[in-house]
Amino acid sequence: MNLHIAFSGGRTSAYMTKILLARWKDKYNKVVTVFANTGQENEQTLKFVKDCDDHFGFNTVWVEAEVNQEKGKGTKHRIVNFETASRDGRPFEDIIKKYGIPNQTWQICSRELKEATVRSYLRSIGWKQKDYVSAIGIRADEVHRVSANMEKQRVIYPLIEDYPCSKKYVLNWWRKQAFDLNLREHQGNSKWCWKKSKRKLLTLAVESPEIFDFPKKMEELYGDVGHEKEKRVFFRNRESALDIIEQSKFPFKPWSENPSNEDLFIDMFDAPGGCSESCEPFK
After folding, report:
1. For the stretch 182-211, what's the b/e string if a residue is b when 16 or more beta carbons lie within 10 angstroms of its beta carbon?
2. Residue 190 forms beta bridges with which residues?
3. CB 19 within 8 A of CB 158
4. 3-state SS string over 102-144?
């Protein structure tokens, strides 16, 4: 049996990768670490993946989606590295051009940009799906994120099943290291992910409005791709990137790492979406 380590570029995922490469190499025939770049990752995420390779020797394989626009042709992969990895959203746009705008009811971004892309790479090195399991970096304090199809998808969760840990533990571990992921929680690996809470999105729109240029452009170019009567947009409640920008101009309480009691998750404005730090495949 082989082991695929799904390295998302987040702190928890990197911590898991460090443990498994140190402790599980003799447990499996072959072990490979793969990072799937969407083209819309924060630059700090890409730097963090590179730092993990340089400091810990992860030997990560960097892949991006290679999309055949012909109907019936599945997503393949291309191998990149820190220098050649897309920063302009090319893989993401190629997926959108074919499948339409992803959102809460059409969650194809992780499926195509991560799952299909990674499986394509693993097939290219001769791994059949029955011959490997995929380790995902989800902690014991976020069991709700575990896939209901984990057995069928051949997914394992070492930080729940073998080395249970919490977010606090992982953050403390990183404070002792020579480097860290230089992102705050509301930023996350993905610049503007539609899974982020409304408060996080509005806060980002105030801090870095330019990050919404890409989703705004995609909605303008490909909003009609698909079979819906209305133009498709990214964000909850059929809100567009332009809606988020416009709403951020009105007063609101920005997201805070240490909110006061009266600010704590009182309504859907703070509804979590599972993308605070990273977006895991095979979920």
Report:
1. ebbebbbbbbbbbbbbbbbbbbbbeeeeeb
2. 41
3. yes
4. CECCECCHHHHHHHHHHHHHHHHCCCCHHHEEEECCCCHHHHH
Assigned architecture for domain 2-175: 3-Layer(aba) Sandwich (3.40)
The overall pTM is greater than 0.85? yes
Which residue, 196, 200, 280, 194, is CA-closest to 232?
194
Long-range contacts of 267-272 (CB under 8 A, 24+ apart): 268/198, 269/197, 269/198, 269/199, 270/197, 270/198, 270/199, 271/197, 271/198, 271/236, 272/197
| DSSP element (H, E) containing 17 | helix 11-23
3-class DSSP state of 80: strand
Where are the domains positioned within the chain? 2-175, 198-270
User: For 169-208, how does the pLDDT look when each residue is reduced to its tens digit (9 = 90+)?
Assistant: 999 999 999 999 999 989 999 999 999 999 999 999 999 9
- Is there a contact between 234 and 220 (Cβ–Cβ < 8 Å)? no
How many C-beta neighbours within 10 Å does residue 58 have?
A: 20
In the block, residue with structure tokens 């870095």:
208
> Among 214, 177, 198, 213, which residue's Cα sits nearest to residue 250?
198
Structure tokens at 157: 């969760």
pLDDT, average across residues 258-283: 58
Nearest Cα residue to 241 out of 106, 102, 139, 83: 102
